[in-house]
Amino acid sequence: MAEAVTAGAAAGCPACGEPIVSGDRFCEACGNELPFTEAAVTPVPEAPVAPLVPPVACPSCGNQGEPVEGYCGACGMRLPAPRDHQEVELQVVAGVTDKGVRHHRNEDAMAMFIGDGFVAALVCDGVSTTVNPDVASQAAADAACAVLAERPDHDAAYDAARAAVLATAYEPAPDLGPPSCTYLAAMVTDKRITFASLGDCRSYWVTPGSATQITVDDSWAELQIASGAMSRADAYAHPNAHVITRWLADDADPAWRPTRVDFDVPGPGRLLLVSDGLWNYTIEPATLVAAIGDEPLGRLELARRLVTFANEAGGSDNITVVVVDLPLDDAHPKDADLKGSSAP
Amino acid sequence: MNFSASTYQNEFLPSDATEVHAVVTVTATNGEATAATSPEKAVVLIVDTSGSMGQPSTKIRAARQALAASVEELPDGTWFAVISGSHEAMCVYPPTYATGEPPSLVRADAMSRAEAGAVARQLRPEGGTAIGTWLDMARDVFAGHPEAIKLAYLLTDGRNESEPHRNLEAALQRCTGVFQCDARGVGSDWNVSELRLITSTLLGEVDIIADPDEMDDDFRAFLERALGKAVADVRLRIWAPQGSTIKFVRQVAPTIDDLTAKATPVNPLTGDFPTGAWAGDESRDYHVCVNVPVGKVGDEKLAARVSLVVGDQPVSQALVKAIWTDDHALTARISPQVAHYTGQAELASAIHEGLEARKQGDNDTATVRLGRAVQLAHESGNEGTVKLLQKVVEVDDPATGTVRLKRGVAAVDEMALDTRSTRTVRVTAKPAAPADPATPAPGPEA
Question: Could you report the predicted ipTM of this complex, rounded to two decimals?
Fold first, then answer.
């Protein structure tokens, strides 16, 4: 698992200036409580065919010989790449992204940042029929995350994501569009979550026994439903159902902007950001509730469970699940206790 | 000297597909040959001096003139020899036969150029034609220079009738990998498939010299190409995974040449395919087709690694991939390069089959095949081949390939078409067809 952990704005303890280790909650020198955290953790995009160091047995044929450019030197199967399956867990947020079964690489990307009293989280899904969609999705997620880490400005974050995607170098290929992806950003605070969504990554508010979809997909199916042309069931049964109607790319209409949704946090619960690799199998919230199950699961466990659920259902697409626990402080009982005792 | 290689393919395969196609373009650049790095160059000029070259005498006179003029222009230091070929071969320059020494090359300098020119002007047409002996002589002449770039030019006006065909085949076998050889047929009494066998085996080009007056230019052009070569013995080294078979490896530009049978194994999964010597500013295309064991949807395999090997050093490589998917939008894509060269290969065989049918008197088949050739040549913008076809058929509609066979076609025109049918053009970028606004393409799925 490759992670980039970069120090945030505060380079030292605000009280004594002692350098602090990213993720520390208290200053080693003076014991002052530090800002919630100042670590940005995003998976580092790896070259899709990064050669592995031998001897790594090929999962397909067991050969342990020298790989050929990231492929098995005997059967030719692509060797597992870091991007195929990634997991991140940080205090109040966890995410799992997975290649799935029927796609050859993971074109989903996720990024998250834990700031002082907020969490920024992004899921982007590369469009398969374009060049380097995996590069596009990671570039978009990383660029937007870097902006949201600094300020809660969805417009600026999206502009940065778009600029990053347009800046990726690529060789045009016949019948494939330029690097393209969908975009879902969430700025999470205890009181309110703001979303910016372009494409068909989904967000759900989850409490025990319930899951509510928050953002609406830019998809053919949702277009039919919104216009009253088709029933929900008929729209989702149609072969065009999953065709997306808006996305982020050089050839996309520049007038397309993410749809903004503000969500007032009703109480304790969980925010899920997921790609269509999951929700293809949980189109109705009740199915998602069933997949989540009754047992109390940690954030990472829940993300893993849902990824496994989608893979067992067929894994027709890349799967990404990001889980944010709210309220943000409740995830840290020790913190909550300390804050409670020191409150005026 | 730098080589670069790029792959053009649609790597996405439907779930049951096992055949992977790719076009690999290899380009050599910065070929400024320096004295230190450039290998020696050796050329052997083989001129038919059989009796028929004197009938009419314009042939032998043109050959003497072209040969003399070209040896007299050889740059200092070039290794060369002149072979006179009839029912036997004689290395007429350098004249080692006179001293009993084995045949050899000589360095070009003022004296050797003058002597060779004088010898060339005295060649007499006499005797038969045994091309195998000429090639064996060339091999002996080249023998002392294993490291040099070795190119021969063979000119004949007749068929190989003074020796059994197997002698030619045996000589070709002995010469394979020793030197490269271009072949030229003068007039129309020679056999295209005979010369094509020579050039295909010895990595050269075959062409027709319909009019002896063209000989001078053709000799010069050969020497220019030969002296422009900067690297000897370049090979395509192709790795393909266990359980796969390389169905074919074909040079497809500038000419079609099947390399499949020329593979020499390097290890159980790797074979070398010879491409001969390269100039410093050359680009060639190869069509590679590999049959791989079928994969599951979601599998990505390396179907082939095509490396370019100079000496024994890989200098560049291109990867051919196979990705199995159930996304029709991905599998339905057509690689313009693969489609184009598949068409150029069909064009060459349509011409060949059309001319064969015509020879057999099967005019219906000839009309259909040559019509198809006209259509393919027209579609792909292969204007050179369209012109050659127009000398053999009346074209009513090139788009549909509607043609009528011409009567009284000159033998040289038919042979020119046959000889040059393997010349290809490169894929031309066509402007994209405007989208039909009535039926907007469905958007993508993420």
Answer: 0.83
